[in-house]
Amino acid sequence: MAVSEAVRGQLEGASWIRRMFEEGIRLTAEHGAENVFDLSLGNPLLEPPQEFRDRLLELARDEAPNTHRYMPNPGFPEVRAAVAKSLARESGVALDGGDIIMTNGASSSLNTILRALLDPGDEVVILTPFFVEYVYYISHNNGVHKLVGFKDGFMPDMDDLEAKISPRTKAVMMNSPNNPTGVIYPESVVAEIGKRIGDAEDRFGTEIALITDEPYRKLIYTDESYPFVFKHHPRTIVASSHSKDLGLAGERIGYIAINPDYPDKGEMMEAMVFSLRTLGFVNAPALMQRLVAGLQDVTVDVSEYRKKRDFIYDALTDIGYDVVKPGGAFYLFPKSPLEDDVEFVRTLQEKMVLVVPGSGFGGPGYFRLSFSVPDRVLEGSLNGFREALAEVRAQ
Ligand SMILES: Cc1ncc(COP(=O)(O)O)c(C=O)c1O
């Protein structure tokens, strides 16, 4: 049975990921799992907090009727209100339950937003380095993507952002804390992004949404508060998730938050709710909604991730790698000592260390590692990192 040309092309484009995955399986089978140090996957390591388990048991015993049936597509009103209340406190913006749609995680949030915004051929501008799935989300929803380059410290190249926005641009997508770099865009950068988008709207007489993907917003290792986008552009929509902050990636629960000042907010909300439903998500899982409603101010123990970040950042810097210290998320994006990052990733594989080439994230010349792994894996990888760098330098 012939599959779609589009999906076949996407599968071929992503085949290097599959090859790397297969190589990891081969190495593990050949050398034993304890001798292979896999830093390639962004799977949250920390288990959900105790409050999650307590609440789960409570809900299991709860015999209240009508809790497992269809519901209003944007979610239980009391859950939306609880999310809004917490987010309003965190951001200082007056959100209410009507500004929230419960979803099946950030990927469902992003697909829902894009579906509501895009007509065939509409453009979405992505700030790089970026989470590679965005490209597929955009094309599945009839759009075309444009990539914006980065400057020092992985900050967006603002002139390139301006150049990439055209009369067909419907949205700009950003992700902070960022996968793959772990960088948090400071307030000044967020403000400048908003300004450049606003200027482009005036120039072209168009409307451009700023979509901000924030699944790592609560995994932050700096003392500064998180710079929210709401006040920097009226057409802002947050895509978020509890995959990482509560360690619930397999449970598929997250939300969309729209700026209360979004022009034509009612129409946009209606379009997103319709899209959530007709994309086949229908509504976020009922049990998970009720669960996370009471956990909005709870997170996994972030200090555990911070310890891992400090360990691997210090170790790689000591060995001689050029690394930007991540302020959040659980990734490092070191510079590849070889110009060809794919080749350097192969060199690391020969030393039993698995990481991902930066080219796959719009960051050629870098590689991504995840420190969301047991300490044993982080410690065990250092030898390979040391040997690979020495080998390249000796060439
Ligand atoms: C930047 C980014 N956005 C979205 C997602 C998808 O997250 P979710 O599990 O909430 O769908 C991920 C998952 O790794 C991610 O890294």
Task: Provide a compact summary of the structure.
Helices cover 43% and strands 12% of the residues. The chain is α/β, with parallel strands linked by helices. Helix 8 (187-204) links the parallel strand 5 and strand 6.
What labels describe this entry?
alpha/beta; Aspartate Aminotransferase, domain 1; Aspartate Aminotransferase, domain 2; seven-stranded mixed sheet; three-stranded antiparallel sheet; 13 helices; 12 strands; binds pyridoxal-5'-phosphate
Low-confidence stretches: none
The amount of helix comes to 40-55%
CATH architecture of the largest domain: 3-Layer(aba) Sandwich
In DSSP terms, counting alpha (H) and pi (I) runs of 4 or more, how many helices? Answer: 13
Strand content: 5-15%
Number of domains: 2
CATH topology of the largest domain: Aspartate Aminotransferase, domain 2
Class of the largest domain, according to the CATH hierarchy? Alpha Beta
* Main beta sheet: 7 strands, mixed
Q: Which secondary-structure class do the elements indicate?
A: alpha/beta
Q: What is the assigned CATH homologous superfamily of the largest domain?
A: Type I PLP-dependent aspartate aminotransferase-like (Major domain)
Number of strands: 12
Small molecules (ligands, ions, cofactors) in the structure: pyridoxal-5'-phosphate
| First and last CA, distance | 49 Å
Mean pLDDT: 96
Q: Write down the overall geometry.
A: globular
Could you give the order of the helices and strands?
HHEHHEHEHEHEHEEEHHHEHEEEH
Strand order of the largest sheet: 2-8-7-6-5-3-4
* C-alpha Rg (nearest Å): 21 Å
